[in-house]
């Protein structure tokens, strides 16, 4: 069938984890998904102050 994907797990603590599959999507499709997530979802990006500078989070 297909090539076996490389898998990595990152423990975030408190029972949470991230599972990363290398090359899960072809590059062009992953960019399309990122564009959708960035432009299609009304993310909250507050301004915070760090050492006297205002930064978008």
Brief descriptors of the model:
single chain; 57 residues; alpha+beta; two-stranded antiparallel sheet
Q: Classify the beta-strand content into a percent band.
A: 35-45%
**SSE topology string:** EEHEE
- Ends apart, CA distance between termini: 43 Å
Number of domains: 1
User: What class would the helix/strand composition place it in?
Assistant: alpha+beta
Q: What summary fits the major beta sheet? A: 2 strands, antiparallel
Gist of the model:
The chain is built from 1 helix and 4 strands.
Describe the fold and architecture.
With 57 residues, the chain is α+β, with helices and mostly antiparallel strands. It has one domain. Helix content is 25%, strand content 37%. The chain contains 1 helix and 4 strands, in the order ββαββ. It has one helix spanning 27-40; strands spanning 7-13, 16-21, 47-50, 53-56. The strands form 2 sheets. It has a two-stranded antiparallel ribbon with strand order 1-2. The protein has a two-stranded antiparallel ribbon with strand order 3-4. Strand 1 (7-13) and strand 2 form a beta hairpin. The radius of gyration is 17 Å and the shape is flat. The mean pLDDT is 91.
SSE layout:
Layout lengths: L6 E7 L2 E6 L5 H14 L6 E4 L2 E4 L1
Antiparallel strand pairs: 1-2, 3-4
